[in-house]
Specification:
five-stranded antiparallel beta sheet; single chain; 82 residues; mainly beta; 55% strand; two-stranded antiparallel sheet
């Protein structure tokens, strides 16, 4: 792992899932925190990987919400760098 400013490691990839958006599609999300056995807090990943790192698209990227763990599908590793 490379070092980011102030000595923090650079996150090169993230484990993500699909979950219903309640807007007619789905969000790509990662688990931020386990709140209960069946409930998690998730972060929306909305943007694209570039050679310099994640390019956030401000509409939804970074939005967090609670959801049922059972609603998370299609687990995969998503690169944050191209």
């Amino acid at each position: 792992m490379s070092a980011a400013p102030f000595g923090r490691p650079v996150r090169r990839q993230v484990t993500v899932y699909d979950t219903p958006s309640q807007l007619g599609g789905s969000f790509t999300v990662s688990i931020v925190e386990t709140l209960a056995v069946d409930t998690v807090k998730v972060r929306v990943w909305y943007g694209r990987a570039t050679a310099q790192g994640w390019e956030a698209w401000k509409d939804w990227d970074g939005y967090t919400f609670q959801t049922d763990r059972a609603d998370l599908t299609n687990e995969r590793i998503m690169p944050l760098f191209k």
